[in-house]
Amino acid sequence: MTDTDVTLTVNGTSRPLGGTPAHTTALDWLRDTGLSGSKEGCAEGECGACAMLLATPTPDGGTAWTPVNACLVPVYALNGQEIVTAEGLGSPEDLHPVQEKLAEAGGSQCGYCTPGFACSMAGEYYRADRAPIDASAPAHDEDCPAHDAEHGPNGFDLHALSGNLCRCTGYRPIRDAAYSLGSPADSDPLRQRLQEPAPSAIPTDAVVDGARFVRPATLAETLRLLHDEPDALLVAGSTDWGVEVNIRGRRAPLVVAIEQLDELRTLSIEDDVVEIGAALSLSEVEKRLDGRIPLLAQLFPQFASRLIRNRGTFGGNLGTGSPIGDTPPALLALGARVVLASVAGEREVDLAEYFTGYRQTVRAADELIRAIRIPLPLAGLTAFHKIAKRRFDDISSVAVAFALDVDDDGIVTAARIGLGGVAATPLRARATEEALIGQPWNVATVRTASEILKNEGTPMSDHRASADYRSLMLGSALLKLYSTTQRPQAEGIDSKEVPA
Fold first, then answer.
1. In terms of Cα–Cα distance, which of 406, 453, 464, 465 is closest to 428?
2. How would you class 461 by CB atoms within 10 Å of its CB: exposed for 0-12, middle for 13-18, buried for 19 or more?
3. For every residue of 308-331, which 3-state class applies, written as one string?
4. How far apart are CA 152 and CA 150, in angstroms?
5. Which residue, 150, 262, 287, 459, could crosslink 467 as a Cys pair with Cβ 3.0–4.6 Å?
6. Nearest to 373 by CA among 248, 257, 267, 292
C-alpha cells in the first residue's frame, strides 16, 4: 500500500493520510490539516469537545451518522471511511439547523464545547427512528416518553448528549435547542447521504517511521498475523488504548484493527444461547437486542456515554482485563462464556475463570476474543447497580450485577452475583450466592447474605472511594434489590438501609 492509497473523506472531500505517524488520533490529524473546530478538552473521551460524525452501515444497507470521539480513534482506522466535522455541517453564512437552533437558544456559551455538541446533536437529528411524540398520550402511560424528562416532544433523546460536557453549565439552552429541532428536509445533503451505503472497510497496512498499523481483511488473516506477531496490539473501538496514547504517551510497534471484521460483528439468538460478536459496538448490541436481555438493558445507559458506546465493545472491555470495567460484572451474573480464537481453533472459557490477575487473563498472546455467549434461559430476577460520583459518563466505584431465580414457593433456587471494583479482577460473589441458594427470599435471608456480601473481594481505598464506602455499598446492594420486589416498610426494612 502506497501513501496515496490511504485516504479519508472529510466533509465530502477525499484527503490523503499517507506519512501520518501511526499513533496519530483523528483529532490531532484533523487539527493538523486545518480543521480546528474539533477541540481537545480531556483527551480521554469524557468531554465530547472533539465529537465528529462517522458514516456507519445500517442493517438495510444504508448509512447512519454516528457521533464518536475523534480524540480516541486512530486516524488510520478511518482509511477509506467518511466523516463530517462541525465545519462540514454548515458555515456562518449558511448554518445547519442544529447550529441555528443552538445560536437562537443561546446555547453556545463560551463556544469551546459547541462543535462537539453540534455533532452529537446532528447525529440524533438524523436518527432514522426519531419521531415527534404524541403529546395527547395519557400521562400515566409508562411506555410514553412524552413525560420522560430525558426525551423531548420531537423525540430527541438527551442521552445522545451524555458524553458532551459544557464548562459554562449552559445545559438548559442546549436542551432547549435540541428539543426545538424539526425533521431534516428532503433536500438536506446529509439526509440524502443516508440512503446510500456506508463505505466498506478497506484492508490497510501502513508503516511510518518503523511503526505499523494493520487492518486485516479477514479473521483468518488476523489470526495468522497474531500467530506470527504475538506482541501485536489488538484495537477495536480504541476507547481504552486511545487514552493510553493521549495521556500516557504509549506507543505500539504494531497495531491491528479488528472492529470491522465481519466474523466479529455477528449477533445470534438461539434456543439455548445468545452469541454476541466481540467487535460489535455496545450501541449496536443495545439496538439489536432491544431489551431481550434485561440485565444488559439496565447496564447500557450507565456505561460511559453514547459517544463511548458507539465505539466501545464487549471484546475490548474484557480484553483489557480491567477490574473496573462495567460489562464483566453483568456478564458474570449472566453466566457468560468467552470464545477465544487462534490459528489452532477455538476454545470456550467460563468468564468466571477468565480473569487471573490485575489486567491479566487466560487469553494467550496469539488469541483474540471472537464472541461472548450468554446461556438461556435467563434468570427471573436481575439488576445492575453502579455506584459512581456521577450518574452518567463516569467510572464506577463499585458495580454489582444480580441474577437470581426464585420459585413459586419463594425459595431462591439459583444465584449469580458479579462484582467489579472490589478486587484485582472482576469476580463472582460465591459465598453470598451460597448463602442465598435454598433459602426463602425474605428480609432475614437478605440481611444475612448482605453481611457476607459486604466482605466479598478486597475493597481498597483510592480517589474514587474508600474501602469502607465500597464495603458499605456492597452490603446495601442486596437490600436495594430486595426492596424492588417487596414493600420495605411492610417487611421491616429501614429506608436508611436502602440507598437511593
1. 453
2. exposed
3. HHCCCEHHHHHHCCCCCCCHHHHH
4. 7
5. 459
6. 267
Question: Rounded CA gap, 352 and 428, in Å?
Answer: 7
**Of 48, 44, 193, 41, nearest in space to 120 by CA:** 48
> Tens digit of pLDDT for each residue in 423-468?
999 999 999 999 999 999 999 999 999 999 999 998 888 888 899 9
Sequence-ordered alpha helix ranges (H) in 229-368: 241-247, 282-289, 294-299, 306-309, 314-319, 327-333
Q: How confident is residue 497, by pLDDT bands cut at 50, 70 and 90?
A: low
Q: Are 119 and 51 in contact (CB under 8 A)?
A: yes
Task: Determine the Cα–Cα distance for residues 400 and 420; give it in Å rounded to an integer.
Answer: 7
Distance CA 216, CA 95 (A): 40
Contact present, 488 and 498 (Cβ < 8 Å): yes
Dump the DSSP string for 180-203: T--PPPTT-HHHHHTTSPPPPP--
Q: Range with the lowest mean pLDDT among 50-64, 65-79, 117-131, 145-159?
A: 145-159
Cell of 341: 480464537
Distance between CA atoms of residues 328 and 386, nearest Å: 12
Coil/strand/helix, residue 281: strand
Omega of the bond prior to 138 within 30 degrees of 0, cis?
no
Only one residue has cell 426519531, namely 130
pTM of the model: 0.93
The single residue listed with the C-alpha cell 468468564 is 351
Q: Hey, what's the cell of 245?
A: 496514547
- In the numeric block, the cell 436502602 is attached to 498
CA 463 from chain center: how many Å? 23
Q: Which residues of 91-125 are buried (b: 16+ CB within 10 A; e: fewer)?
A: eeeebbbbbebbeebebbbeeebbbbbbbbbbbbb
Residue 322 sits at φ, ψ, to 5 deg, of -65, 140
- Check if the beta carbon of residue 56 is closer than 8 Å to that of residue 198: yes
456 to each of 324, 423, 426, 475, how far by Cα in Å?
A: 15, 9, 11, 9
53-64 as b/e: b if 16+ CB within 10 A: bbbbbeeeeebb
Quick: pLDDT tens for 293-337: 999 999 999 999 999 999 999 999 999 999 999 999 999 999 999
Segment 481-488 long-range contacts (CB within 8 Å, at least 24 positions apart) = 481/381, 481/383, 481/385, 481/402, 482/441, 482/443, 482/446, 484/383, 485/381, 485/441, 486/443
